[in-house]
Design a protein that fits this description.
Structural class: mainly alpha
Radius of gyration: 12 Å
Shape: flat
Strand content: under 5%
Largest sheet: none
Low-confidence stretches: none
Distance between the termini: 19 Å
Mean pLDDT: 79
């Protein structure tokens, strides 16, 4: 978790994470609200293709109540 957080802050230029960084951080923290924020940001930018991963994670979370790690998704 800490290495991902360091990566996100190191690659971050203006204090705001990219939508995919929010998604990865949400996975690392097991925080669904960060993943949902990622989806909203991607859809607002018109990047529907890149919304598929965060949406799949949210669907699995809603169905099972947990986020899987590794190849379980």
């Amino acid at each position: 978790f800490q290495s991902l957080l360091n990566f996100c802050t190191r690659t971050n230029k203006n204090g705001i994470l990219t939508p995919m960084q929010y998604c990865y951080l949400g996975i690392a923290k097991n925080d669904i609200s960060l993943i949902e924020k990622s989806i909203v940001s991607l859809e607002c930018a018109g990047n529907r293709f890149y919304c598929r991963l965060p949406k799949k994670i949210v669907v699995e979370f809603d169905r099972n109540g947990i986020m899987y790690e590794g190849d379980a998704i």
